[in-house]
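Q: Give me the 3D complex with zinc ion.
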Amino acid sequence: MICSGIHAVTGESIAVEFDRVIHSARPTQASLDAPYLAPGFVDLQINGFAGVDFNDPNASLEDIGRALDAILATGVTRCLPTVITGSPDAMCASLRNLARVRHGAIAGFHIEGPHIGPDDGPRGAHPARWVRPPDLDEFARMQDAADGRIRLATVSPHWPESPRYIAALVNAGVTVAIGHTGANKTQIAAAVDAGATLSTHLGNAAPSPLPKFPNLLLDQLAEDRLTAGFIADGLHLDDAFLRVAVRAKGPARTVLVTDAAAPAGMAPGSYRLGELDVDLTADDRVVLAGTSKLAGSALRMDRAIANLMRIAQVPLNGAISAVTTNPARLIRLQGLTNGLAPGDCADLVVFRTLPMRIEAVYLNGERVV
Ligand SMILES: [Zn+2]
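A: Here is the predicted complex, encoded as structure tokens.
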């Protein structure tokens, strides 16, 4: 199979020859109406989609598969279904259910919690009664339930146990993110020294109001060993913050996540997120039922790319890196770290811009959209 177009990162006209893997990506004659080509998008944080809650241990394999098919249509070929803070039994049950799903788009799982900040603000919408300190035995039980496929864990560095917990996970090959936290400068530094490499949805789930200095957002922005994830839906972050934060992190340390929940891709109404009731409002906010508190998003990755370009004035190549090679490198996703290079998985997105429009998606060389 051959796909031709403009490489969305390098700007070159290329012809990509592939079956399951990419055999070659050669320069070719430019054509005026050529679409853009990019590697498949990678979403490190997605709680649900198309009415399906990945946290629901009783979600059927068919429904989860249907949600993942809907995610493919947004250009995301690999994602980490994300399980948020819940009881030990509920988190293991959700992971066990997800681990039974056979779908090429699942690259592993993200556990966002339960070892997060207990206070209002840092905790976000996660249920307070299930916040608890890091516990390696519990991690082993979750990893066992997930068939060893937890690849990312979000932890608050404020717990005394955090550095040891982070080091053990990193040593086991799991990427660790700092998030849902009110940690101080020393605690953040200790977490990074222990091996944390990502800030989970930076700018959200933080104490409010924040002191001018010291300030945990600035501490994470200033730390070059941390990549930052952003929810670029135009609702979670102030435009100026997103613009400045992306400049501070630079093109290689910026990652977009959707943090999408079950209402994404659906009509306004009532949905579930773990044990929480959430509402999708008419202006596309996902909030805890009856409140204005954000609880995930209704964002699609193709829109996130367009939003990052518009709000933060990031050029197309930077926005594409933020959803392809940057997240793939962060979790060492084999075959997706080089960006349309020979030997890479044949995950391809064919798209046009202004407006952003996905024309075709290939997963492992098979056309899926
Ligand atoms: Zn979160």
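A quick observation: The radius of gyration is 19 Å.
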